[in-house]
Sequence to fold (349 residues):
Amino acid sequence: MSASPIVSVIIAAYNAQRWIGLSVASAQSQTLREIEIIVVDDGSTDDTAEVVAGMAGTDSRIRLIRQANAGVGAARNTGIRSARGKYIAPLDADDVWGERKLERQVQRMEERGERTALVYCWHQWIDEDGAQLGYKSNSIIEGDARSAIILRNFIGNASVPLFRVNAIDRDGAYLTRDEQDGGQGCEDWDLSIRIAERWEVGLVDEVLVGYRQSNACMSSQVPSMARSYQAVMGQARSRNMDLPITLFRWAEGHFQSYLVSKSYDGCDYRSCINAAIRALLSDPLLILNQRLHELTLKSLIWLATGKRRSLPHRISAASTTDADNRAPAAGISLLEKIQQRRWAAVVGS
Fold:
């Protein structure tokens, strides 16, 4: 192991034996070799720890920390407290990196200078077997991103960012499960918001992260994500009282629309309807969202009949239902035009 790693890779893992080997291997294969890989096993009941221990036996850069289950935020914080690098790079236990991910992000961080504390890159969706799905991110925001990151989490997911270590609180970088009213799922968004409130962000405009999409536990994640979102945005609002309330209402409308799709995909029809109501209350213009109408009506029908449709065995590009991630079949709808104008007004372009 390097005496002074440049990057500390933090992997929080819970019952992740299916993919943890691939995730750790993608960190090992980075062209930037001066790294440490800290895997925090968060009380797994499968062979996650054994897989990691076996890999650590052949690579001294890997460290395994085991703890009782405390949630993903607490597990990442455990890893960060043990980190020795100048930069922190979280990696979810089912995602993978391109081999130049850390090299390119460190390079961009140092090009932009001390005012930049977060560098992100683009990501693409992959399925359970690692095959590419239809969506790739394409945000081009750099510099002051406070309003933009509140409106939408353009970073994309927890495996994307590289953080400057002196910009984060080692003891509370991520919100814990208890700090999110028992929810999880938006703690990475929260950290990006807090960084953007005080620092600038940079971009490597390359696809360097594979963000895995899976049906596993899809329905049970939605109520948890909803609680997490409310906790994160409640705190963000209290810290950013100078920003217009409409920004937060648009943000909630967008996020609840995402939960409509995610709930329906997981056959959680009550959550689908609840999310649709919240979306419309937050942003009445979403009455123009045909996809929201369609999924809400279908959910009402499934609830009335007392039936459940079968989940697809695998997620495919065709089965993803986040409307913002797919090009319209023909032209641009009125709602999409309005949302594009809103986004341009917020990011200043």
Observations:
- The chain has two domains: 7-212, 218-347.
- Residues 317-330 have pLDDT under 50 and may be disordered.
- Strands lie at 7-13, 35-42, 62-67, 87-90, 96-97, 116-126, 132-136, 162-164, 200-212.
- The two ends are 45 Å apart (CA to CA).
